[in-house]
Design a protein that fits this description.
Elements (H helix, E strand, L loop, with lengths): L10 E5 L13 H4 L12 H5 L2 E9 L2 E2 L2 H15 L5 H15 L2 E9 L18 E9 L7 E3 L5 E3 L4 E10 L15 H15 L5 H4 L1 E8 L4 E4 L3 E6 L27 E2 L10 H9 L8 E2 L10 E8 L3 E9 L5 E3 L1
Parallel strand pairs: 8-9, 8-15, 12-13
Antiparallel strand pairs: 1-5, 2-3, 2-4, 4-5, 6-7, 9-10, 11-14, 14-15, 15-16
Length: 333
Amino acid sequence: MIDKTSVPNGWVCLYPQDSSLTKDNSVTEDNRSTSQTVTVSLDNRGLAYGDGFFTTMGVIDGLILWSDYHYQRLVSHADALQLNINSEELLAVLQLYAQQLEQGMLKLVVTRAAQDVRGYGYTPNANGNDCEIWLKATVMRVSTALQLSLPDGSLVPIQPHASAICLSSQIACLPPPLVGLKSLNRLDNVLASGELQQIKSEPLASEIASILGEGLLRDMSGQWVEGTMSNVFYQLAEAPLSESKTTSSIHKNDEDYLTTGQWYTPSMAQSGVAGVMRQVIIDALSTTQYPVRIRSLQDEDLPKLTQLFFCNALRGIMPMSSLTLLSGDVVDF
């Protein structure tokens, strides 16, 4: 068992210093507790090329939220990037850190180990390339004051209503091996988040801008795909809403918020990150009267929106009360 002193205050390298986390080795109590705070080399491939991925996990009462889904991310990302990770053993280590953290956030970063091949290249092998595994534990309050019950009985946090805005920034369209991955290549999200922060900080910001919670992003094909840090779900009317009918029949505080009406979410087939909470919601509604439908979100759909929320694994559901379009028009929900 890891004692209190082994819970990191900053970044630690779990592997290669902890040799338990590759497919060919097993975890021992001794090597779990020997992680030391270290500095990253400037030759690290994650730093040099964005060669790796990350996942961010909420921890409540010593448990990792949606741990099964984070495990699936470890497996799928290791396979896609050809990395040698023993995902079961790694998750076991993360759960021990979570027990000691009790409440907060675990951020895991995995990068490909240095290669003998010069430049971008790497040498494939049967088990995948060795990697470096980094962990940061942060003590923080994960809000559970307001929660919605999913059809399977599990609870998901729901944040206070905020407003959203369509951003001019765009995200990249990616090839099949990379699309949907939470890779370390996040410059498009960085620039989009910067645009959102700039709007929030403008001296003459409108009342809507003052309560902005998230920005909606297009990809390079023009489809609206996700938020700067989240996935998006929406409901539609058959025609654009008039000023006299700008409120959905779904009450904002309705316990049936997720199960009343048809929800859609954009495809991750060419861009975006297939988030953990996105998949939780898709799976939870799969056996209900209105399973989530995968559907592209186009410019012409925006005036027809009747409900919109963003979601991620830390914040849960972030419902929006309005969306400001690129034209400056506002769609109220």
